[in-house]
Recover the amino acids of this structure.
């Protein structure tokens, strides 16, 4: 059956890459543009993909909006996460249908809408913002993307959540309960993401992924150090660069236009630095099952030689921002570009990660946060 446009359908009126309008069809509405007038009523009953002709004889295609179109056209109250980052976030954090997602900093709801569409129909996004003004804008954008059923928005300052065990020791008002538990992935987009790491950690499941959106390198540095202090591993910072190509017969070249800097991304996973069960020689080593994975080779050259004894697992490439987190982690470059000189390895777990250092060792003291509530 042909897919026809109806009253209230969302349609992208597409003239060219820079001239397109995302509308909700309302029989009486008329869109006035520099290429002429478009009557919504003329689109009703047409199949998606067909075209209208304006009163200036220009063709406009009636396209079904994708999430990319919603993201690019959404109402901005804040900076947003753009499509070039959205896809990578989903792939790197393994976000999929049925997952529980925690988001700190709803903003305009760009990331929220995209991720909600990925986790639906059984998953859910729990998104928090301290500013109710932005939440109203986000709600509109989320509604427009058709995913509001899969999103819970809450007006809350995540920094205010007390994650110490003695939450009333200061005699003040009781801290609110943690609003989410066992999240698969946490997404953080605010100016000082390190400030909410203890709270986010408590709401994540073990090994759960965290992604933070950091527009500046200064934020990346501070966040990476804080991730180590808060017992996260597999820390990796990235920048995604997108280049458009003008593809035309005989004169294909890069486009002069393009997106400049949007943001850096920082990824990590929740670990327990003090949990030692699978280390060689430690209690429980006999329970380790060899999965035959070649990556388990202790001489694996991919192991990031820049990993320090703080428990971080390096990504094995020079893009890892954690390489610059501590001075002790920074060593002389080895023959391999971007690598650092290998230090003697502490015992390793069978799965290729470093075993936690024995309690009280200098390494474990370095890994432990200066003062952090009990790791959840
Ligand atoms: C850059 S915007 C997020 C944009 C969003 N990722 C998007 O794609 O539309 C940052 C948001 O974080 C919110 N925020 C800042 N501090 C917060 C806190 N402590 N708890 C919750 N939200 C906070 C701000 O109000 C703002 O709306």
């Amino acid at each position: 059956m042909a897919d026809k446009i109806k009253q209230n359908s969302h349609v992208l009126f597409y003239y060219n890459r820079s001239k397109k309008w995302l509308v909700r069809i309302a029989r009486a509405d008329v869109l006035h543009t520099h290429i002429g007038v478009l009557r919504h009523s003329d689109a009703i009953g047409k199949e998606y993909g067909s075209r209208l002709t304006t009163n200036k004889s220009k063709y406009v295609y009636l396209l079904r909006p994708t999430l990319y179109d919603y993201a690019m056209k959404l109402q901005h109250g804040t900076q947003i996460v753009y499509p070039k980052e959205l896809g990578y976030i989903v792939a790197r954090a393994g976000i999929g249908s049925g997952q529980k997602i925690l988001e700190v900093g709803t903003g305009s709801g760009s990331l929220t809408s995209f991720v909600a569409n990925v986790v639906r129909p059984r998953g859910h996004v729990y998104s928090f913002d301290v500013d109710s003004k932005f939440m109203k804008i986000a709600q509109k954008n989320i509604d427009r993307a058709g995913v509001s059923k899969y999103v819970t928005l809450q007006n809350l300052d995540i920094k205010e959540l007390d994650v110490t065990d003695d939450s009333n020791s200061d005699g003040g008002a009781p801290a609110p309960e943690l609003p989410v538990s066992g999240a698969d992935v946490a997404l953080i987009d605010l100016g000082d993401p390190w400030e909410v790491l203890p709270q986010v950690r408590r709401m994540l499941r073990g090994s759960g992924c965290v992604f933070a959106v950091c527009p500046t390198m200064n934020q990346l540095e501070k966040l990476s150090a804080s991730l180590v202090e808060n017992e996260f591993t597999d820390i990796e910072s990235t920048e995604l660069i997108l280049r458009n190509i003008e593809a035309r017969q005989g004169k294909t070249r890069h486009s002069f236009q393009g997106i400049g800097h949007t943001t850096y991304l920082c990824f990590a996973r929740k670990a327990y630095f003090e949990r030692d069960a699978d280390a060689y020689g430690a209690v429980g080593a006999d329970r380790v099952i060899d999965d035959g994975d070649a990556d388990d080779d202790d001489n694996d050259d991919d192991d990031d030689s820049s990993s320090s004894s703080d428990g971080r697992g390096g990504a094995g490439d020079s893009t890892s921002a954690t390489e610059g987190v501590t001075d002790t982690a920074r060593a002389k470059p080895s023959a391999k570009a971007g690598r650092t000189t290998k230090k003697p390895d502490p015992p390793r777990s069978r799965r290729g990660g470093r075993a936690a250092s024995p309690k009280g060792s200098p390494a474990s003291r370095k890994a432990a946060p200066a003062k952090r509530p009990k790791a959840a």
